[in-house]
Amino acid sequence: MAVQRTLSIIKPDATRRNLTGKIIAKFEDAGLRVVAQKRIRLTKEEAGRFYAVHRERPFYDELCEFMASAPIVVQVLEGEDAIAKNREVMGATDPAEAAEGTIRKEFALSKGENSVHGSDAPETAAEEIRFFFSELEIVG
Ligand code: ATP
Ligand code: MG
User: Fold this and answer.
1) Separation of alpha carbons 129 and 66, rounded Å
2) Going by CA atoms, what residue is nearest to atom 19 of ligand 1?
3) Single pTM value for the model
4) Which atom of ligand 1 has the smallest separation from the CA of 87?
5) Which helix (H) or strand (E) holds 24?
């Protein structure tokens, strides 16, 4: 298994409820390391560019509004098989379907306000990391 990097976002529903530390602890407990991190506030237009792959989906506008509604924490997680491991710790998109012990099972409010984002493949991970971070900001 190779060491990978993946992009993780702690979403507005979680920053609003002061859950940042509890969520990061879940990643660290699973063996993932935070190698870059910042708290930012996206505009709706920036959220739209990040989620451009979902442009045609019915929830796109609602998703962009939500992602711009409060600060987010963007971070690069590093570790063995980090892309899949991150998604395992996150749990299913819909908290009603998420496994026990996952972030979304414990903290997500709904399918839309589901506390975290994680890249889904090596290509999207590289692209999403580049969207938020320069090489100099990633310290492994
Ligand atoms: P993410 O990409 O955020 O890690 P995901 O890969 O589990 O989550 P996607 O299918 O890529 O899920 O959807 C992206 C995001 O869009 C979801 O995390 C959620 O916030 C929102 N979303 C997805 N489906 C719905 C829906 N039916 N209604 C409202 N929001 C949705
Ligand atoms: Mg996704």
Assistant:
1) 21
2) 112
3) 0.97
4) 4
5) helix 20-29
